[in-house]
């Protein structure tokens, strides 16, 4: 079996979260989706499990952090600066928040940060490895 990552997120509104993730390019896997959870697929290796708070609590007794706290920042690569800008703008237009951190432009690398409707943080970025300063 190939290595995969399943990122689990507690969400307030499953339908709204599914709509948000669909808008930024994820696809729903109906085999792992019901009224309590949805599997949203970014690639063959990366999946996001959106879990209602009740479903989340079946996995852990740890408290659900408030949407204003930092937990993790998940970075995804894109093919261009324009693609980074595009997903950031799409996220903001579909219930997310754009640029929760300052835009980072290092010439060889460009990134922005978005939060989904529940405050989970993503960092879309582009990098040109050949241009990294030596």
From TrEMBL:
InterPro entries: Glyas_Bleomycin-R_OHBP_Dase (IPR029068), Glyas_Fos-R_dOase_dom (IPR004360), VOC_core (IPR037523). It comes from the Bacteria. Gene3D superfamilies: 2,3-Dihydroxybiphenyl 1,2-Dioxygenase, domain 1 (3.10.180.10). The keyword Transport does not apply. One of its GO terms (molecular function) is lyase activity. SUPFAM superfamilies: Glyoxalase/Bleomycin resistance protein/Dihydroxybiphenyl dioxygenase. It holds the Pfam family Glyoxalase. Residues 3-127 form the VOC domain. Keywords: Lyase. PANTHER family: BLR2408 PROTEIN, BLR2520 PROTEIN. This is Lactoylglutathione lyase.
């Amino acid at each position: 079996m190939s290595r995969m990552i399943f990122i689990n997120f507690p969400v307030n509104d499953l339908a709204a979260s599914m709509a948000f993730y669909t808008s930024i390019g994820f696809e729903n896997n109906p085999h792992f989706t019901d009224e309590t959870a949805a599997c949203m697929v970014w690639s063959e290796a990366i999946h996001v499990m959106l879990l209602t708070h009740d479903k989340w609590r079946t996995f852990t007794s740890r408290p659900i952090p408030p949407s204003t706290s930092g937990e993790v920042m998940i970075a995804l690569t894109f093919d261009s600066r324009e693609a980074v800008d595009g997903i950031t703008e799409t996220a903001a237009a579909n219930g997310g928040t754009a640029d929760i951190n300052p835009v980072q432009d290092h010439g060889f690398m460009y990134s922005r940060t978005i939060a989904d409707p529940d405050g989970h943080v993503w960092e879309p970025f582009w990098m040109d490895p050949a241009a990294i300063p030596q």
